[in-house]
Amino acid sequence: MAAVAVVVGLGAGLTAAVPAPPAVERGPAPTPASVTAALGPHAVTTAAVRRAEVTGFGGGTLFAPADAAGGPYGVVAVAPGFREGAATLAWLGPRLASRGFVVLLVDTLDPDEFPTAWAAELLAAIDWVVADSPVRDRADPARAAVLGHSMGGGAALEAALVRPGLCAAIPMAPWDPAADFAGVRVPTLVLAAEDDTIAPPAEHAERFYASLTAPARAYALLPGRDHNFSNAPDDVTAGLVLSWLGRFVDGDTRYTRLLCRGTLSAAVTSQQDTCPAP
């Protein structure tokens, strides 16, 4: 596994700004191997969401655990990058759904629009999943997260800014004209790529992370990756994303040890944190 530099702030405030839903532990204790494997224990159903069937966003692709009896499950809305569609992040759908999340990869109404508009679409997508989607019986309205790449990463930050009740936000190689996200109280994991020349970390991801005051926040710099690292399967990315969602969407504290002290992978080369003991 490639090396990754991680800076984590998970101190006394391992909670969101609003009361968290009760914790859920799904299956055996997570390990580095289990969070980086291609698939988890759940069979997955997949459905296309047509633009004409929804309002507030442009449709997309819906992934969910096939077994409703194991739910309800947390909901994750995922935004693509500039002029891209949901298909560019297709690998994340089964990765997350097979671990017990309902995932909607969102097609945006206007692929040229800015992150603030896409943030509204991410939130509209979550609302549709929990209220009107064919898997609404499996979706937990109290457990929702946003994730995005590039301008979609900016959208994830913007969505967290306006909906503090979200359980987690994960911007990947985020791009946004704004630089101040001090108002975000949602647990936020910022993923950056060392060789990113489109949204250089020093100008985007690092600045966004530095502005955060959320009680739970983390920044990871992935070496050897360019701006589009999230558009193809990546075990380090998957492990960090799944651990963050498991910790803050499901509230499963067993994931803390994977996020703290460099235990997610022996390839973590440097880390600063204020994490509590697992």
**Poorly predicted segments:** 1-5, 10-17, 264-274
Largest sheet: 10 strands, mixed
What's the rounded overall pLDDT mean? 85
What level of helicity do the residues show? 10-25%
Coarse morphology: globular
Q: Spell out the CATH superfamily.
A: Alpha/Beta hydrolase fold, catalytic domain
Number of domains: 1
List keywords for this structure.
globular; alpha/beta; Rossmann fold; disordered N terminus; 10 strands; 278 residues
Any chance you could write out the topology, listing elements then pairs?
Layout: E1 4-10, H1 32-36, E2 44-49, E3 60-65, E4 73-79, H2 92-97, E5 101-106, H3 115-131, E6 139-149, H4 151-162, E7 168-172, E8 188-193, H5 205-211, E9 216-222, H6 235-248, H7 256-259, E10 268-272
Parallel strand pairs: 1-10, 4-5, 4-6, 6-7, 7-8, 8-9
Antiparallel strand pairs: 1-9, 2-3, 3-5
Helix pairs in contact: 3-4
Domain PET hydrolase/cutinase-like: 23-276
Enzyme class: hydrolase
Pfam family, one: PETase
